[in-house]
Amino acid sequence: MTNGGSSGDDRSGAVVELRVHGVSGTGPDALLGSSAGESVRVAGDARAGFYRLPAAAPAGSGPAWRRVVEAYSWGGLTSGPASRAVWLLFLPFILIDLAHWMLPPPTRHRRFASIAVGLLRLLALSFTLTLLLAGAAAVLDSAVWQCGSTDRCHDSFGPAFFFAGWERGPQLAFGALPLVAVIAVLWLLGRENLRYDPDRTPPDPAVLRDEVPLAAAEFWFADDSIRRLRACHVTAWAAGLAAIVLAAPTRYATGGRWVGLGLLSLNALILAVVIAATAWNRTTGRGGASADRSTRPLSALRWLSLAVLAGSLVWTAVAAVDYPAPPTHLPGLRGAIYVVLAVQVGLLAGLLGAIALAKRTVPAAADPVGHRATLRGYTAWYVALIGWLVGGAFSVGLGLLAAELLGDVVVSTARAEALLAMPGEAAPIIVAPPYAWAAVAIVGLLLVAAVAAVVLRQLGRTRARQAIAGVLDDYPGARADDPRIARIARARASASLADLLTVTVAGLALATVAGMAAMAWWYFSDQGGFEALPGRASTLTAASVLITAGMVGALGALVVAAYRDRGLRREVAVLWDVVTFWPRANHPLTPPCYGARTVPELRARLGELAADPQRRVVLSAHSQGSVIAAAALLQHRPNPERIGLLSFGSPLRRLYTGNFPAYFGPAALSALRDRQPARWINLWAYTDPIGGWVLDPRPGAVDRRLLDARTLADVPDGICGHSGFWTRPEYADAIGELQSDLLPAGTPLDPGPTVRPTETDL
């Protein structure tokens, strides 16, 4: 049910407490503390809407102003559709897109920041090619080229390999069709969901320190650059797939080889144009100056690449080719994998240098303690590195999983020939030797991560002992041996460890890179070689292969389970609530951005409510909701004196200022404070692992610390944590204080019935 925006508060003055929840998709009834189905939608739709309880009876001769509670429930944007579960498979794409928003802002010049923006897009394009190569290794190489040509292998799967008796050329052409279908996924899922206005372009993607891009209403608008970027990725996939399929028939052709060489050259030229377009900020960079005239040429190039792909598949199917006898692996595929890997290493090195050069104009202590960029401003590089490692692990796992399902994993042709000569043995499937090494490295990383977890746990115990003195200061007269004091101290210590997770994950990423470098050194050494480890430790290698393949299988099972189970999908959506706040910038195949709807929608609702001189608004925002609220208030222009802000459990400084310094850095927080003078209260507690103080931890006009538990009698259920703010009396006091600040002095206010959320895990 939907009705007008006033919903019963238009007969007298009203102070609207507008609640915005955090992650996990809290429903409107829970947010308003009402029975299921009791709330009434007054704006928006079922996915993201504004709700109130049914209007009460007229107040008669009561106070001229009354209090109204309204809820903005936006969880349907992230945890609703079952198709959202599929996005788990595209985590590397999500991370490389997130890295764009984490770039540090230079002080004076955009040059090196612009280079970093372009390099990130090139890395994102290489991630698409990595996915293509992973699919080719699993489908074209393991299933079609190897298993399809070996009687012992394809006979085990019966009708599933109905094409086993075909010639190699038709097998390759047919086997490429599933990878051709992925083009439709890239095309459809990459559609932009932002509003498009040709006359309003988002701000420049390279942000300077004194700029506040979120203050521009155009920030959430789309431009044609993302559509052009999508065309580039579709084109690159088509050209890359065609080149992979053409490699074998061109190499072994007995006639008409010039056709294959011509098609390969044409695909290489198309790929080169796509790479150049992806690197050019004006063509594919979100925001800033735009080369709109390149939209049609890139769209035409996409259709051309699809036509060339079709021609490549047809020629592969009909060409006269003398293919080698099995066992062999698909020619050209390993070389493509090594080339892409080398290019990615070079791009990561270039990105690191570009960030360093962009940062050189920024004083080391330019920001106050607590507001400085995480990892010294290199967070974007670490996130890109992690995305690369995750993508590589997924590719290795997918290749090994396919090989394990089809037969026995081997790393050399000689070993495959030996197994084929042994009756009763499973069919051998040859994988690239680095796959086996990577599996060992992944298992080694898991062990290092387990050690890191033990170290963090021990550190938590140490911090808990150190926190006891501070807890005793909050509860005068309590004894240090009181188990309730220890309980609060442990909660504080556990919450403080969240600040070390970024450093820990970055350290694990560097450890992985160091392990890869050691393996590369072993490969080029006289005593080493990628086949040395399987020969010396076959049990370790086999176990590592099974574990790595099992991880990919488990990820697939999680996707299926999340697709079928809304509750599990809601838990998965907690991650998306954080990473999909931002629009697409580097990769078109990422989850739709919900910030593009929630921020303008909340801003419009605030404008509608505050436009009436008989209304005041207290915006009450928890956790991620405070990020949405801050972005909306940065853009809100009319009647700011009629709006107050209460944030609690807010990650604005703790997660966003350090990790997204160009968008939520000190300049943005200062602008927000200036727009909300004396009408902003932020509640925080030491036991909150996500939120914290925003401007200054010392007692002041904005930040106010809550005791971890109101009294020791409330321990353990009353420890604040991240979700205990709603039921604390300090919350009601802050609402009342903001209401008093917004109303003329001495104005009577009917507080109305107490409305508390029935679900506090928001």
What does this structure look like?
By secondary structure, the chain is an alpha/beta fold. The protein has a domain at 13-74 and 594-750: Rossmann fold (3-Layer(aba) Sandwich). The protein contains 26 helices and 13 strands. It has helices at 28-32, 76-79, 91-101, 111-146, 151-154, 168-175, 177-189, 224-252, 257-279, 281-284, 295-318, 333-359, 379-406, 413-420, 433-474, 483-496, 501-524, 532-536, 538-564, 566-579, 595-610, 624-635, 652-659, 661-664, 666-675, 729-742, and strands spanning 13-20, 40-44, 49-52, 65-73, 195-196, 221-222, 408-410, 428-430, 615-622, 643-648, 680-684, 703-705, 749-750. Strand 2 and strand 3 form a beta hairpin. Helix 3 runs antiparallel to helix 4 (111-146), helix 3 runs antiparallel to helix 13 (379-406) and helix 15 packs across helix 16. The model is unreliable at 1-5 (pLDDT under 50). InterPro entries: AB_hydrolase_fold.
